[in-house]
Design brief:
Strand content: 35-45%
Number of strands: 21
Order of helices and strands: HHHHEEEEEEEEEEEHEEHHEEEEEEEEHH
Radius of gyration: 28 Å
Helix content: 25-40%
Number of helices: 9
Structural class: alpha+beta
């Protein structure tokens, strides 16, 4: 609930145009005004990057280079372990799991239609370490949590305070079933909210968000969110819905960009909210993901054809029917053989769909060269599942799994991501990247997971 309260958002973009003139211009002539530099669109940026040549380094040489540069980012993320804000938020999440609170004070689980707004969730929740529960006191101005900043502490030295402003957009929110029909509350979505986290009376984090609505559903036309930690980390997100949907995110540490995400999509968001199975509304999407000063991942995706191809794949394959356990003529070996063939075709088809409709390229930002294309292949994963086929029990007239039947193997399949280099050499991520990259991924996930609840 905190995530829902704190993470729905919007900031107005600010645009500045600067013009300058040449001081040495003849005063009798018209001054020459310098045209402002126009930012390239996302599509233009991607088109330029795709034209870059492939790196001449061998896959082995490229691997050494990639790992060395990625470890630079790992060092920055490692510093987040000492963040007092992250540690406090993680402990708050833990305490909310120990004792869950009803932030709507029973109004969202009473099978009665209620009107809910921001002020309806206000209250002060103080952690009672002895009783292992939250004690609530009333508040008409804020939502506040008072709790220990660390798992090892018992004293309540951390305070998370939040307040917001409701918009005039009201949406239905499931309440329950009253025996005859589903009951929905009406909740006013927030147009803005702010939060601050203090530890030992010192502010360690702030959160701001704003949102604009016009379509009368839960999807904002514009949103923005910003989290700032006193430890130097900043996480920002913003987006705008329209003919082209735009979404951006920026993750920095002491002003140094660690992650810069920029995406665009032609999807009809409002139509997909009503029915996300309608593939014609998914449109196309593209994006740039920049990792520090080192890498760029380019994405060019046709989600409409990807969805249509997925439906076509599912219709083209018929999953075999499980045999009748009371029919002595049932053939379990034939069934499991057909099931293996079905799952193999589905996995191969899914990988082919990815390669056709989702184009991903890994680029070296420093060198201005493409490193590799990203493709998928269907492969066996780990050891097969080996079991004994059922045998017919004539006495009780049913197929029995008593462990005496013929041994049968069922492979586990997955779609594996590969790097495809300029010389058509293909190497899977799992074998190409060492444990350094696994740690890098884990550290970033640890940082983001601190704000998931």
């Amino acid at each position: 609930m905190i995530k829902k309260l704190l993470l729905l958002s919007v900031v107005l973009s600010q645009f500045a145009i600067s013009c300058s003139s040449d001081d040495s211009t003849d005063p009798t002539t018209d001054p020459v005004t310098e045209e402002p530099t126009k930012d390239k669109t996302l599509a233009e940026q991607i088109a330029e990057i795709v034209k870059q040549p492939y790196s001449k380094l061998t896959p082995a040489e490229q691997k050494i280079k990639l790992e060395a540069e990625a470890n630079d980012m790992l060092v920055q993320l490692d510093k987040s372990k000492s963040s007092s804000a992250i540690e406090a938020l993680e402990n708050l999440s833990r305490l909310l799991d120990i004792y869950q609170i009803d932030i709507f004070s029973g109004k969202n689980d009473n099978n009665v239609e209620d009107i809910l707004n921001i002020s309806g969730v206000y209250g002060v929740y103080t952690w009672n370490n002895t009783a292992k529960k939250w004690d609530k006191t009333a508040s008409t101005t804020e939502l506040k949590f008072v709790f220990p900043a660390k798992k090892s502490q018992t004293a309540n030295n951390a305070v998370l305070t939040s307040k917001g402003v409701s918009s005039d957009v009201k949406v239905k929110y499931y309440d329950g079933y009253n025996g005859n029909e589903s009951v929905y509350d009406n909740i006013f979505l927030p147009s803005s909210s702010d939060a601050a986290l203090t530890v030992d009376n010192a502010q360690v984090a702030t959160f701001t968000q704003t949102a604009k609505y016009s379509s009368k559903n839960q999807s904002p036309d514009e949103f923005a969110y910003k989290m700032t930690l006193s430890d130097g980390y900043t996480w920002e997100m913003n987006g705008k819905k329209g003919t082209e949907n735009i979404s951006k995110a920026l993750f920095t540490y002491n002003g140094k960009t660690l992650l810069d995400f920029n995406s665009g999509s032609s999807a009809n968001i409002d139509a997909l909210i009503d029915n996300d199975d309608l593939v014609q509304y998914r449109g196309k999407a593209n994006g740039l993901i920049k990792l520090m000063d080192n890498f760029i991942i380019v994405a060019d995706m046709n989600l409409e054809t990807e969805g249509a191809d997925k439906i076509a794949l599912e219709k083209s394959l018929v999953r075999p029917t499980y045999p009748d356990s009371n029919n002595p003529k049932s053939n379990y070996k034939e069934y499991y053989t057909a099931l293996n063939a079905y799952e193999k075709k589905y996995s191969e088809g899914s990988a082919a769909n990815f390669n056709k409709n989702l184009k991903l390229i890994l680029v070296s930002k420093k060198d201005g060269t493409k490193i590799a294309d990203l493709v998928q292949h269907s492969e066996k994963s780990g050891n097969d599942y080996v079991f004994n086929l059922p045998v017919w029990n004539a006495q009780y007239s049913y197929w029995s799994n008593n462990g005496t039947g013929e041994s049968f193997s069922q492979p586990y399949l997955e779609e594996v991501l590969y790097l495809k280099f300029n010389d058509n050499t293909e190497v899977s991520f799992s074998t190409y990247f060492s444990s350094g990259f696994e740690k890098f991924e884990a550290k970033f996930e640890d940082f983001i997971n601190a704000f998931e609840k």
